[in-house]
Design brief:
It contains eight helices and twelve strands. It is α+β, with helices and mostly antiparallel strands and 336 residues long. The longest helix has 35 residues. It binds dinuclear copper ion.
């Protein structure tokens, strides 16, 4: 029989181990909150998923505790070498029956959740079509009166109201995911997928592409703003409007061919290849969540496009004379 003393630790080692475990736990918990956390849910679907996670984590802890207890008993010699029958009970009970019961219970709980997670939003709900592009998001709000409002890389939602997302892709497979609001859904070329969400608290969250889709996959994000209903209605009304009157910067925009790829409603720019820029100045970020929309960001984007977002389709415009660049930047910033 082996003595348990062979496994004893000095008080100093125990202390160091305890500190290491605490530090690891604290470090990993830091990642559990924030604008992109599935464990700090802000929507009905995300709450269900977070609950499933905690039940599964609980089940895992129970299984591990049993295993550790069995291992500890063996080391300490509590399982006598002579009682084979007892050992068999431990193996069958702890190694087969118990994990099967725990995992089956978790499976049944998880499967029971599935219908609610794939259900469609009620008829007449706000519907937003989102198309995944390398590497940005084309968004189109379908309003009850039949009108559509195009925008890109930002979603705003009214709190407490269901929303139906209609998803597809124009190139490769992407995956639409707002961790704070719900689960992810693949965006597949040539196929339409659906995802219904119900935001339950206001705030700013982050959506991401959850499927590797090429060079700048990690730079394919979007902002999600959940607002009070009145604020949302005002925002949507403002997004419906064409761009404010054009300026000298608007002339620079058109003269350099930007309108071949980008649309700015109310101007001759009607391009469909890149993001709609009608109200780009009002967005929280540019380059699909890559740069915060703050002074200097448009200039950086225009001058170093391929450095900010490697392999991006848009060419950089660093060759523009300084005065034209200033006008262009001012114009884009003014598109509120
Ligand atoms: Cu789109 Cu990854």
């Amino acid at each position: 029989m082996r003595s348990g003393a062979a496994f004893s630790m000095s008080p100093l080692t125990k202390h160091a181990m305890a500190r290491l475990i605490l530090a690891t736990l604290a470090f990993s918990l830091v990642g559990c909150s924030g604008e992109q956390s599935a464990l700090e849910p802000a929507g009905r679907e995300a709450t269900r998923i977070a609950r499933l996670f905690w039940w599964m984590a609980g089940g895992t802890v129970i299984v591990w505790l049993i295993m550790l207890w069995l291992g500890w008993s063996a080391v300490k010699g509590r399982i006598s070498e002579n009682t084979e029958r007892q050992a068999r009970h431990y193996i069958i009970g702890g190694g087969a029956i118990f994990p099967t019961v725990v995992l089956a219970a978790l499976l049944i709980y998880g499967l029971g959740m599935l219908p609610a997670l794939v259900a469609r939003a009620p008829e007449g709900s706000l519907t937003i079509a989102v198309t995944g592009e390398q590497w940005w998001w084309r968004m189109s709000y379908h309003l009850p009166d039949g009108e559509t409002v195009e925008l890109a890389n930002e979603i705003r939602l009214p709190v407490g109201e269901p929303v139906q997302f209609v998803l597809d892709s124009s190139d490769v497979i992407h995956s639409f995911w707002i961790p704070s609001l719900g689960g992810k859904m693949d965006m597949i070329p040539g196929r339409v997928t659906h995802l219904a969400l119900l935001p339950e608290r206001t705030g700013v969250f982050r959506g991401i592409c959850a499927e590797y889709c090429g060079g700048s996959h990690a730079l394919m994000a979007f902002d999600v703003v959940v607002m009070e209903k009145d604020d949302f209605a005002r925002w949507l009304e403002q997004q419906r409007q064409p761009a404010s009157a054009t300026s000298a910067g608007g002339e620079v925009f058109l003269a350099n061919g930007c309108g071949a790829c980008h649309a700015i409603r109310g101007t001759p720019a009607k391009g469909l290849i890149g993001p709609d820029l009608t109200h780009v100045g009002s967005r929280r970020s540019i380059g699909a969540g890559t740069l915060k929309n703050e002074p200097g960001a448009f200039r950086k984007w225009l001058e170093q496009t391929d450095q900010v977002k490697p392999q991006v389709l848009m060419p950089h415009f660093g060759m523009l004379p300084a005065d034209e660049m200033d006008l262009l930047v001012t114009y884009l910033e003014s598109l509120k």
